[in-house]
Design a protein that fits this description.
Structural class of chain A: mainly alpha
Strand order of the largest sheet of chain B: 6-7-8-3-9-10
Distance between the termini of chain B: 28 Å
CATH topology of chain A: ABC transporter involved in vitamin B12 uptake, BtuC
Radius of gyration of chain A: 24 Å
Bound molecules: adenosine-5'-triphosphate, magnesium ion
Order of helices and strands of chain B: EEEHEEEHHHHEHEHEEHH
Strand content of chain B: 15-25%
Structural class of chain B: alpha/beta
Strand content of chain A: under 5%
Number of strands of chain B: 10
Oligomer: heterodimer
Shape of chain A: globular
Helix content of chain B: 25-40%
């Protein structure tokens, strides 16, 4: 009986390892496929959530995907280019509000949804160049502060010109896809979710391609061996600009996706503020430099866990009146995010994604030890 | 060339002929690296001129050339303190040296056009060829971080070689290498000159290495020229002896 079971197990094991080896081979020849698989997995997970008991959680999933993508753009800046920016959230906000202004059109008239995207993206290129200008003059903490003020200036200007004070709602079938199918947030959330997954997947593949290309190598060179970069003909200025433009455009795509999905713009002082910029930075640090899956893991830890669990725990605790309202003010989720950052820096300075590498190494070691024991038994 | 009040290179003048291996020697702080930095235009506020003979025989004043354009003229260099990307593989580090040959643009890279793939393949092949020449092809997919010092030094040389230079400038290539590695390096540099037809200018403290390898040696101290001569003559030169012995007491 046990022998049969053992045989079945080895048979199973053999096939699994065969398949996994084949998958591994395909993936290493076309690494972009891993993101397609990830997208498909997110569609499945999303469907389970959407048809499950709390379909509202699909919002959280979409937001996590958007933030992971934006974090990867930020990672290009931080992990590759060695540059920092605290203006990510305001850029996202500008893109979201820009879309609303153009598409809803109470102020300047209506523009087709896709044309609006093009306009917003072109503007974001200019914004990236503007932020990039700062990086030619300063580095490190000074750059962080300068970009921080860039964000503040945007928010202040927006307030002064009352550009964004027409309310936040961007729903009404104003967002028209392919002719006259207009998507409303209430009825078409599943379609909107698919749009988010597809866009994020495509953008991530594009970023992956760039990072693995001569451009990606140049980004690493300007941050890690600037002198060699110069001597080999890589212009530090040019690639700094490029890094800022790319990460700004990705942030803008994030803003566009956000407003498309939520059909609300979000306010500058409550959503597109420094806190979000810092959270995105935290996702990069906690998740690990240089990989999309690290960003997704980071977003899951920093945003997912608080959203999925803490809200409930908080509500539970507050309902019981254990700590009262002050508990909510304390911000359980923020404390958690802070704690995660400290833990990540202490134990996984190269990011939480390294946990999987450690696990894999342990597993292989275990397997080898087991194999070793089997051999010794055979000898007996 | 001044650093504040310090005169690092003082009225120095020497010439390098094509296909020579020229050594630049001098005690610590003599200004050797500073000379290299002036030649490769990392510093531009020096007095005097650095002339480079171009393909059509013209004497080009390098000061008019931007530091990032120097490599296009066929001048590639290595650094005394390793300037490598620790968290990139050996081959990726080498490919940094091929930056000037990248003919594809950002859009090509974004969508991985066939052109990009073709070019990546070609560049990789060239990089592997060079790594084979330097006997480190087996390590091509290893991360530089944690590789032995000798290998890192070779990666620096490979990165300069892939730029197809006519003049290669090496800042202390043998520093930190053991006896055997130094011997190998000597053979390699000679091959670089003979097989690739590259002129070599190098700084080195290892006297045996310099004397064995170089055709001409230029000795400096406190930024001033002591002597330019054949290795044997340099060894006998009283000024050079004094500079080295005088430093020791
Ligand atoms: N960037 C700099 N700023 C100020 N002083 C410098 C700078 N670079 C070099 N110096 C000074 O100029 C002098 C020459 O330095 P250089 O690095 O050229 O010497 P070197 O001959 O290469 O010495 P070593 O054999 O130690 O490498 C030294 O006194 C050094 O302290
Ligand atoms: Mg030196």
């Amino acid at each position: 009986m046990t022998k049969k079971l053992k045989k079945a197990l080895t048979f199973f094991d053999h096939h699994v390892s065969c398949i996994s080896r084949r998958v591994h081979r395909v993936l290493s020849s076309i690494p972009q496929l891993q993101f397609v698989l990830f997208g498909l997995a997110m569609v499945i997970v999303g469907y389970i959530v959407y048809t499950g008991s709390s379909p509202g959680n699909i919002n959280v999933l979409a937001i996590i995907m958007i933030y992971s993508m934006v974090a990867l753009g930020l990672n290009l800046l931080l992990g590759y280019g060695g540059l920092i920016s605290l203006s990510t959230a305001p850029v996202m906000g500008l893109a979201a509000h820009g879309m609303r202004i153009l598409v809803v059109g109470e102020q300047f008239g209506q523009v087709n949804y896709f044309l609006a995207i093009v306009i917003v993206l072109v503007l974001s290129v200019f914004m990236g160049l503007l932020i990039g200008l700062l990086s030619l003059k300063m580095e490190g903490i000074y750059l962080a502060i300068a970009t921080l003020f860039f964000g503040y200036i945007i928010a202040e200007l927006a307030g002064a010109f009352e550009l964004f004070s027409y309310g936040q709602s961007a729903r009404m079938g104003a967002i028209t896809f392919f002719g006259d199918t207009s998507l409303s947030w209430i009825h078409d959330i599943w379609t909107l979710y698919l749009i988010v997954v597809a866009t994020v997947t495509l953008v991530v593949i594009g970023l992956y391609n760039i990072l693995k290309s001569p451009t990606g190598r140049a980004f690493m060179a300007i941050s890690r061996s600037q002198h060699a970069a110069l001597a080999m003909g890589i212009s530090v200025r040019r690639y700094r600009f490029l890094a800022f433009v790319i990460s700004t455009v990705v942030a803008a795509i994030g803003g566009i996706l956000y407003v498309t999905f939520r059909q609300r713009t979000g306010a500058f002082d409550s959503r597109w503020n420094l806190e979000l910029s810092l959270i995105l930075l935290a996702i990069v640090v906690v998740g690990g430099l240089k990989s999309f899956f690290g960003m997704f893991l980071g977003a899951m830890i920093i945003i997912g866990i608080p959203e999925f669990y803490f809200e409930r725990i908080e509500a539970f605790i507050i309902n019981r009146g254990w700590f009262g309202e002050s508990f909510r003010m304390l911000g359980f989720s923020d404390v958690f995010a802070g704690l995660m950052i400290v833990l990540a820096i202490l134990f996984y300075p190269r990011g939480a994604i390294m946990i999987f590498y450690t696990l894999k190494a342990k597993l292989i070691a275990l397997k080898q030890r087991k194999a070793g024991r089997d051999v010794s038994i055979d000898v007996e | 060339m001044y650093f504040g009040g310090l005169k690092a290179v003082d009225d120095l003048s020497f010439t390098i002929e094509k296909n020579q291996i020229v050594g630049l020697i001098g005690p610590n702080g003599a200004g050797k690296t500073t000379v290299f930095n002036c030649v490769t235009q990392f510093y531009k506020n020096y007095e005097g001129r650095v002339l480079y003979s171009t393909e059509d025989g013209e004497a080009l004043d390098l000061r008019t050339i931007d530091v990032t354009k120097i490599v296009r003229l066929g001048i590639a260099r290595t650094f005394q303190n390793l300037e490598l990307i620790p968290d990139a593989t050996v081959i990726d580090n080498v490919l940094i040296g091929a930056a000037q040959d990248v003919k594809t643009n950002l859009f090509d890279h974004l969508v991985r056009t066939p052109r990009t793939r073709q070019q990546n393949r070609e560049l990789r092949e060239r990089a592997i060829e060079i790594l084979e020449f330097l006997n480190i092809a087996l390590l091509k997919d290893m991360y530089v971080l944690g590789l032995p010092y000798g290998v890192k030094k070779k990666v620096e040389i490979a990165r300069a070689l892939i730029a197809n230079p006519k003049l290669m400038i090496l800042d202390e290539p043998a520093a930190g290498l053991n006896e055997q590695e130094t011997q190998e390096l000597e053979t390699l540099i000679r091959k670089i000159r003979d097989d690739y037809g590259i002129t070599v200018l190098l700084i080195e403290h290892d006297m045996r290495f310099v004397m064995n390898l170089c055709d001409i040696v230029c000795a400096i101290n406190f930024g001033k020229l002591l002597a330019v001569d054949k290795p044997a003559a340099i060894q006998k030169n009283p000024l050079v002896q004094e500079a080295y012995l005088g430093k020791e007491d």
